[in-house]
Amino acid sequence: MPAPSLSGIPPALAARGLTKVYGDLAALEPLDLAIPAGQRVVLVGHNGSGKTTLLRMAAGILEPSGGDIEIFGSAAGSLEARAALSYLPDTPVLYDDLSVSEHVEYTCRLHGAEDWQDRASALIADLGLAARADDLPSRFSRGLRQKTAIVLALVRPFDVLLVDEPFVGLDPAGRNAFTELIDDAYAAGATVVVATHQLDYVARVERCVALRDGAVVYDGSPGAVDVAGLVG
Amino acid sequence: MTAVVSAREALIDLHRARRRTRTKQIDVFEALYRVYVTAIVGGIALWVVSGLTGDHRVDAATAAQVRDHGAQVIGAVIGLAWAIGLRSGGRGGPLVIEAADVRHVLLAPIDRTLVLRPMALRQIRFGVFAGLAAGAVGGLLAYRRLPGPALEWVGYGAITGALAVAGALGLAMAVSGARLGRLAGGGAAGGGLARSSLVGGLLALGVAGWSAADAATGSTTSPATWLGRLAISPLGWRSGSLIGAGVAIAAVGAGLWWIGGCSIEAAERRASLVGQIRFAATLRDIRTVVVLRRQLSQELPRQRRPRRSRLSGLPDWLAWPVWRRGWQGIIRFPPLRVLRLAALGAAAGLAAVGAWRGTTPLIVVAGLALYLAALDAVEPLAQELDHPDRRDGYPVDVGPLYLRLVAPSLVVMIAVAAVGVAVAVAASGFRAVAWQVGAVVVLPAAGCALGGAVTSVIQGPPPIASATDSMLPPEVAGARAMIRTVWPPLLATIGVAPVLAGRHPSVSEPAVIRVAGVTVPVLALLIIVGIWIRQREPIHAWFRVAMKEATSGPARPAAR
């Protein structure tokens, strides 16, 4: 069971006995995990280990088969949790009939963001989308769609950032820009959870959680273990 | 309140912006063409149905029969529609929410009812309109045969149609949003989706069964039957009809009230799958529709084989690899698929009994039920066809490989047909002629149904532009496409049609002898289908070479 928070602030992410079953396949065994506010965590594991399932349950997209998962004490998927959490999936999901800037505008308005215009312009410029801001993402390459999704995930207010395989499809400039943006969010106090196979990113964080076949097999400093062995 | 107002304004602006972009992309001439084609198809359908119903008024005795039993028949249809709605709701339907709306709007910190209720209202509005139109047409056709003013028939028909559709949608939305899986012990989590599906399915069975019981007993107890009573009100008003109308309206109210609670996981899964199913259906790609429908209902193969799998113990020289591969796939059928196969077999048996007793068109129902079962049973072959790169890598001719893959499926279909025979024997009071005829028909029925399914999956969807069709006149190409679509279910019906031959036996030729006599050419047809499966690829390869030579000339011999 996750240890209770000493400061009285509930964990940014707390999973208790969390399971997910599809038919007779257990995607997640009973899993306990607590991530305190302001921590940066990387999730590693082989393909099919349960990283995406865990993140999607935290985002409120998948429903647990057992146990529960909370974001700052509110059930995942509740109104409070949705306000606090920003989820960036591995596959960008965008409207076919809105431009990049229209996507940004409506995301910010739905999330009640104030004075979002400057931040949006900065993000779009940082990710090299300034020249394409009025184009429809449905016509973009995979990399540009991923960049658009990154802007949407970061432009709105959040306290927890969940990122699933963020670097797939990004060019080196985009990768560097996104890494800096994640660092900026962490520096601003957000809790960041990144699921990735990129071992060079693992070295940047203070905590590594490894999953294997739906269970946590390691939870600690990435420097104290052979991370490549955990991923492979 | 301010947050709610601003969220609502943001949603309105979002939809306006999307509508603006979509409107710019509309091709006016294509839109007009679609209206034109829809009007022509609708007009032809109406003319055909109108011709089938005839013009002459029925006599008083027939009108009395309609008055006494019409509500039950219409109520059974309405009950079936409501059952489909309940089942859909248990699986997260009926709303089809765009993936981007699930991702960006439903995961935003706004009340989901605010987002989903307008979508629900739009769907109900569309459904009510469609039900009104269908009901009005039905009322008009009824007026031509039955006594009563035209306005009353059209009016009551339209209202009944609208309420039937609205009720189905309302029930679906209520089940979906109320998350009945929680009431069944799922808690907030605990497999709520699976339990919701189970609860929805049980409710659907209950509603459909209740209406069917009314139809069987001639009583008027279920709300669907009372609503059916409303449709035949020109033959005599019963105030109980308002019960059915009230239930339908209450269902709509409940659906709109609870719609905000629907599952995001189910919505996300439906988002892409329903669009793909519709696209595959327009292409007449039966196999893709089957696969996507299974994904929609999360009908997954069993992860683990049954513990005692005799196949794993067989020596290699005895366990032929293709036969073994077929059974390895079949023993992983999920329980729901096995139940469905049995249910379709039972339905085929009951329909065959109905055809034997004089309702000849029910033989088509029997054939279609077996065809649907065969589309599941043919899974080992279909899997091979879904992965042509793997198949092309085997050092085996394709034709013989297909036939060997069909063998385990034939065993399954014989079992399905045997269930049908058992049900038919029971429904006919355990008469000897029932099992005699059933024993003769079981193999051709199973074989032809499987042949139809195999034909369907091997052919695949009609090509959009084929070299063959380009050489044929448009009328011939169109007829060819229609035959290609109709042939598989027709073959399945041919397999069970020998049952009709035994309806009028004589002393010199008992029923089973007559049926057996008709079965011989059916088995011959089955052999021809088998030869086609075996030889299709070589014939197509020869044809491709011939086409190429015809267009580019024969290959010149190499210079010496």
What does this structure look like?
- The complex is a heterodimer of chains A (232) and B (560).
- By secondary structure, chain A is an alpha/beta fold.
- Chain A is built from eight helices and ten strands.
- Chain A has helices spanning 51-58, 79-84, 100-110, 116-126, 142-155, 172-187, 199-202, 227-231, and strands spanning 13-22, 25-35, 40-45, 66-71, 74-75, 85-88, 160-164, 191-195, 207-212, 215-220.
- In chain A, the strands form two sheets. A six-stranded mixed sheet of chain A has the order 6-7-8-3-9-10, sandwiched between helices. In chain A, strands 2-1-4-5 form a four-stranded antiparallel sheet.
- In chain A, helix 6 (172-187) links the parallel strand 7 and strand 8 (191-195).
- In chain A, helix 3 packs parallel to helix 5 and helix 4 runs antiparallel to helix 5 (142-155).
- The longest helix of chain A is centred in the C-terminal third of the chain and has 16 residues, at 172-187.
- The radius of gyration of chain A is 17 Å and the shape is globular.
- Chain B is an all-alpha fold and 560 residues long.
- Chain B has three domains: 9-50; 64-282, no CATH class; 316-550.
- Chain B is globular, with a radius of gyration of 27 Å.
- The termini of chain B are far apart.
- Chains A and B meet through strand 4, helix 2 and helix 3 of A and helix 1, helix 4 and helix 11 of B.
Helix-strand layout with pairing:
The complex is a heterodimer of chains A (232) and B (560).
Chain A: E1 13-22, E2 25-35, E3 40-45, H1 51-58, E4 66-71, E5 74-75, H2 79-84, E6 85-88, H3 100-110, H4 116-126, H5 142-155, E7 160-164, H6 172-187, E8 191-195, H7 199-202, E9 207-212, E10 215-220, H8 227-231
Parallel strand pairs in A: 3-8, 3-9, 6-7, 7-8
Antiparallel strand pairs in A: 1-2, 1-4, 4-5, 9-10
Chain B: H1 2-25, H2 28-53, H3 60-90, H4 99-104, H5 112-145, H6 150-178, H7 180-186, H8 192-217, H9 223-231, H10 241-258, H11 264-282, H12 286-296, H13 310-313, H14 321-330, H15 335-356, H16 362-377, H17 379-386, H18 388-392, H19 398-427, H20 432-459, H21 467-471, H22 474-496, H23 498-501, H24 511-552
Helix pairs in contact in B: 2-5, 3-6, 3-8, 3-9, 5-6, 5-10, 6-9, 6-10, 7-8, 9-10, 11-12, 14-19, 15-16, 15-19, 16-19, 16-20, 16-22, 19-20, 19-24, 20-22, 20-24
